[in-house]
Amino acid sequence: MAATLVAAIDHGTSSTRCILFDARGAPAATAQREQTMHYPRPGWVELDMDEVWRNTQECIHEALISAGASAADVAGIGITNERETVVLWDRATGRTVAPAITWQDTRTAASANVLAADGGINRFHQRTGLPISTYSSALKLVWLLDQDSSRRDAAKRGDLLFGTPDTWLLWNLTGGPDGGVHATEPTNASRTLLMNLHTLEWDDELLETMEIPSALLPEIRSSSEVYGTAIGDLSGVPVAGVLGDQQASLFGHTCFDHGDMKNTYGTGAFLLFTLGEEPVLSEHGLITTVAWKLDGAGPVYALEGSVAVAGALIQWLRDNLGIVDDAGEVEALARSVEGSEGVVFVPAFSGLFAPYWRNDARGVIVGLTRFANKGHIARAALEATAYQTYDLVEAMLADTGMARLGELRVDGGMTRNELLMQFQADVLGAPVAVPAVAEMTATGAAYAAGLATGFWSDLDELRANYAITRRWQPEMGPDERAAGVASWRRAVDRTLGLAAPER
């Protein structure tokens, strides 16, 4: 009997899921487990990847039971993950040697400044498409190696393995210490500051500059191919697709053509613009990244802008300020006032990412008067996500020479917030479109695996699966839009230089 499903393992910042998709690209079953985020010091954000692996196994088991399926019903497994997180583990035991340092972590700010002192933050931009910042993986890996001299010796011997979460999950899914496949692919590797964007290989000069032993590194393969077969509940099923989460979302949205653009509203917000087969190096603070590389084909590139705090700001309103008991209450609270009344919230909690790249920025709320209340703060928090997205769109249009945005395809939990979606369309002056399937990140991973195993035949079949269920049209006039953007930019200026210099 032919397989009828494809599995996607979706490792996000705050949870891990397993979703089973049918041939129409519709979810047939979903299982999810939250994972504990650890904040041991200001600016430090860590994960226990051993917990993540346990959660992954539980999610696979639960999703199969929910669908009434077995391994024989699954054609392939795709993996998608939050990308810049660094995992370091023992090859023999399979145990991590330290907590994983996540993409939000800023402990390497001083190291980034030292590395950028010779040539600036764009020192490696031509080669990697990336600025030097706390965002990329390389300096986090260096930090882990420097904490214990025995680690660096073990790394040189090949006794330790490095990977972003995709590599960790692939290695464990395919056997772990008993023959696990130690590999990654270009969408994740391109975020390390160690891969040459043009050759899709680890760059020896960058490894030497940062003193990273090459024996640590996974093999770079394509995004859609059979890496190996799984153990456990999916025993014998090929693991056949890997994509970093934002590239997976772009792929799931079927943004296959030049100029297609999507934004994912999760813990952060991530805007990607499909370039095609030639990379464009940004002159406006964006990242050039690999969008995907299908087996037997050349790489496709994208521009990306990353916002550190989007949905995380709503969690902060709930957990730190306590002005809502549940994140779902924020929209109603924001609707309790007619507008933000001049209140602007810039959530630069760990600095500003694209297009500013300022590690010294910190969050501010400005424009407060005696009239302001928690409703205005909630509304300003939602507007912050829309304005940060506006900054990224403007940078992408400038880099690519496009006159205006045609349509923005969106996904992520915050797309359920209708006030935010309407405001996003208003600020952009362009339609915002939400697809029928909300889980675009997992969809993209499933598509990559399904293409490699023949479950789907080609990109046209994937396009046929895609459907828009809701569009928000802009209603704001140009004068109001310009005034709001100007107020936002003044508030951003207030965040700069607020962080004490690293010593």
Give structural notes.
The protein has 503 residues and is α+β, with helices and mostly antiparallel strands. It is 34% helix and 22% strand. It is built from 16 helices and 24 strands. The chain has helices spanning 49-67, 109-116, 125-128, 138-146, 149-157, 165-173, 186-189, 204-209, 245-252, 311-321, 330-335, 374-400, 418-428, 440-453, 459-465, 478-495; strands at 5-11, 15-21, 27-34, 37-38, 46-47, 74-81, 87-90, 100-101, 160-163, 183-184, 195-196, 201-202, 219-220, 224-229, 238-244, 261-265, 269-276, 287-292, 300-307, 344-346, 364-366, 408-411, 432-435, 468-472. A seven-stranded mixed beta sheet has the order 18-19-17-16-22-23-24. Helix 10 runs antiparallel to helix 12 (374-400). It is globular. The N and C termini lie far apart (63 Å). The mean pLDDT is 95.
Summary keywords:
single chain, 503 residues, globular, 6-stranded mixed beta sheet, 22% strand, alpha+beta, 16 helices
Could you tell me the number of beta strands?
24
- Strand fraction band? 15-25%
Helix content: 25-40%
Biggest sheet strand order reads: 18-19-17-16-22-23-24
Shape: globular
Q: Which stretches are poorly predicted, pLDDT < 50 over at least 5 residues?
A: none
- What's the main sheet like? 7 strands, mixed
| Rg calculated over all Cα atoms | 22 Å
Q: Helix- and strand-based class? A: alpha+beta
Distance between the termini: 63 Å
Mean pLDDT: 95
Number of helices: 16
